[in-house]
Amino acid sequence: MEGQPAVNYEALTPEDLSNLLTQLFQPKTDVVKQATAILKDYFKRIRALENLLILMSSHPEQNIRQISCVYLRKIIGNQWMNLAKENQEKTKYLLLQRFVEEPVPLIKKNIADVIGSLGKILIPNKEWNELFQFFFTYSSSQNLIDKELGMILLSVIIEYFSADEIKLYYDALNTIIEGHLQSGVRSLQCLAIETVNKVAQTPKAIKILKKYKNLIPLVLNALQLDQEDMIQKVFEMFNEFVEIKKVLAPHLPLLIEAAIKISLNTDFSLNLREITMLFLEQIGENYSKYLVKKAGT
């Protein structure tokens, strides 16, 4: 970039990086552009990953910890193999430790996203079994906060499970997910619904939803009327599976009733109501013979 000062990237300290990140919040466009250009080059170096981890874990300012997570999520996959084995292990431990200790919920979720980005690489290669140990330990706790931590992490990482992980762990996971859906605890119900939505994106989704027939009705029963975003995600998922009759057919009466109620409720946004009306249209197209037969019995 013309006019950009020469930068000794290897000499940048965590404090220097913090100052650069702070410049991104400045109102002056030229300051933001210059900082962005420097960071773009800097993030190609392994030292950047190390300094971002330091800021994520220890910086006193919330906005710096948060933006450090944003950039960590972007670069950790590319830089991971450049870390020494010993530092890889320390990084995995640090991410889980910081996920537990971070006091700000939004940043905690950001750290979970970093864990997810790394898990995308490590889980299929069975290189981070501590994630599963973490989840089962925290989800079996009697403490609600621990249960929430376990489910936050699961809702992020489950989409990266390979077929082997799903086969190995899902029986035990499903017991926990179904329990949370029926818990009456709003936070656990929301996280369980998010997790089922992520399960629906995995290679074994159809097999899981066929085998664990309680999941769909439990998700519907756990939805609250004031959770419009969540309701939309759920019906978008149902629209994806509308042609898979072995998944949806057992639950048609419940699904149709819920979709009609939402479609007729003018308190919901037009977008959500259109999604549920599309669902009903597709049900009519794909299940007409089934519905006629059902009506005649």
Tell me the structural class. mainly alpha
Beta-strand content bin:
under 5%
**What coarse outline follows from CA principal-axis ratios?**
elongated
The major sheet is characterized as: none
Range of helix content: over 70%
State the low-pLDDT regions, or none.
none
Question: Helical stretch count?
Answer: 17
- Tell me the number of strands: 0
Give the N-terminus to C-terminus distance in angstroms: 74 Å
Count of spatially separate domains: 2
The gyration radius over C-alpha positions equals: 23 Å
Strand/helix succession: HHHHHHHHHHHHHHHHH
Tell me what you see in this structure.
The chain has 297 residues and is mainly alpha-helical. Helices cover 73% and strands 0% of the residues. It is elongated, with a radius of gyration of 23 Å. The chain has helices at 14-23, 29-42, 46-58, 62-79, 85-101, 105-122, 130-139, 144-157, 163-181, 186-199, 205-211, 215-222, 228-240, 245-248, 252-264, 270-286, 288-295.
